[in-house]
Design a protein that fits this description.
Length: 251
């Protein structure tokens, strides 16, 4: 199934509403590359959230993004970084030369890929001793606010299949992708939002209802009500962790 257009029309909300990654995650990626000037293929790079973080650390970044709206947002945002290269490719066909990068990273994106084809492409484009990192900012689903948010999405959003593309159900795919040789790292990353930030975060999701959807107003009303119930000093805090799966070029 082609998921390329799922984020069309959401780039602005994505850029403004999506959170970044803790400094400890960025340090982990730096340690895993074992290079002084690493070259990163950011696959499904979206609006460039991870790309920017690594560019600011002096990396060369190839942002591979099939969605034109998201790619344009990244190109505009990162135009002052000469070491950023925007590529209209996919996880399965990056158009990068063989052996050209030291790390492949997919942030909030692996669940959209053809895992077997992506695995072959990683092996092709990675240099010797290259590493692959799969990252997610993942809600802690046993918390009350996350449980209630999930119930709202299940009620109104036909394309909601679970948070982070159903991350809890990806274990087998991730294991097979890495040939069952990988490490998992978890970093606390609770996220605090104002009302506007929270709603933009919701509108950036692949399952968000668009203006043409009849249930959009009811969905937003329910999310506003959720914010009101959990708000303290103008913000809600959503329990979250950043989960990173790391493995080598051949698993």
């Amino acid at each position: 199934m082609d998921h390329t257009d799922r984020f069309t029309g959401r780039a602005g909300a994505y850029a403004q509403g999506r959170p970044g990654y803790p400094p400890a995650v960025l340090e982990l990626l730096a340690q895993e590359t074992r290079r002084e000037s690493p070259r990163l293929a950011d696959i499904g790079s979206g609006t460039g959230i991870l790309s920017r973080a690594m560019l600011e650390r002096g990396w060369t970044v190839y942002g591979v993004e099939p969605n034109a709206d998201m790619r344009r947002e990244a190109e505009l945002s990162l135009k002052d970084f000469p070491s950023f290269h925007s590529i209209p490719g996919t996880a399965e066909h990056t158009f990068l030369p063989s052996g050209s990068v030291d790390m492949v990273a997919a942030a909030q994106a692996f669940h959209w890929f053809d895992a077997a084809a992506f695995k072959r492409e990683c092996r092709r484009i990675l240099a010797r001793e290259g590493r692959v990192a799969l990252l997610w900012n993942s809600r802690l689903e046993d918390s009350p606010i996350v449980r209630e948010e999930g119930n709202i999405h299940r009620l109104y959003c036909p394309r909601f299949y679970g948070f982070s593309g159903g991350l809890a159900e990806l274990a087998d795919r991730i294991g097979e992708f890495f040939d069952h040789r990988f490490r998992i790292f978890r970093f606390p990353n609770d996220l605090a939002y104002t009302r506007e930030q929270y709603l933009r975060r919701m509108m950036s999701t692949s399952y968000a209802l668009m203006e043409k959807d009849e249930q959009r107003s009811a969905w937003l009303d329910a999310l506003n009500g959720l914010f009101d119930r959990f708000e303290m000093d103008g913000r809600v805090t959503v329990p979250n962790e950043t989960v990173v799966y790391v493995g080598g070029r051949r698993g």
